[in-house]
Design goal:
There is one protein chain. The protein has one domain. It is 65% helix and 0% strand. The protein has 4 helices and no strands. Helix 1 crosses helix 3 and helix 2 packs antiparallel against helix 3. The longest helix has 22 residues. 9% of the residues are buried.
């Protein structure tokens, strides 16, 4: 018997939007979406959510201890689980920003494919 798996990217978008609705109901966060991005408050919200994702990236980068060229001693410790958790946090915020704009998993995937073609072409052309 074959089990059909749901589209994982769509599932991620669905789970994030469900959480956003829950936190909107319980804490008043996010307001309603999709936002009108021409409005100042909407741009402020999308910027704030996106920057929270950037903050989580910085938290993940804090787990990389052995990257400094000038450091003579080696620090090979790495908490993979914590790094991954922070990367998931950042991905959640970036996904929330897309949802606020009304981007769904299909539109995002199409944009991803379009960009993938561009970066491969750049590589071939010596960009």
């Amino acid at each position: 018997m074959t089990h059909l798996r749901p589209d994982r990217l769509q599932e991620i978008f669905t789970l994030r939007e469900e959480f956003m609705r829950e936190i909107a109901d319980k804490r008043g966060a996010y307001g309603t979406w999709p936002v009108d991005i021409s409005q100042k408050k909407s741009q402020q919200l999308v910027r704030e959510v996106t920057l929270k994702g950037v903050e989580e990236i910085f938290e993940a980068l804090g787990e990389l201890k052995n990257w400094k060229n000038h450091r003579l001693s080696e620090n090979t410790s790495f908490n993979r689980e914590l790094f991954l958790e922070e990367m998931v946090d950042s991905f959640n915020y970036f996904t929330a920003a897309l949802i606020l704009l009304g981007v769904d998993s299909e539109e995002f995937f199409e944009a991803f494919l379009k960009k993938d073609v561009i970066i491969h072409k750049r590589l071939e052309e010596g960009y």
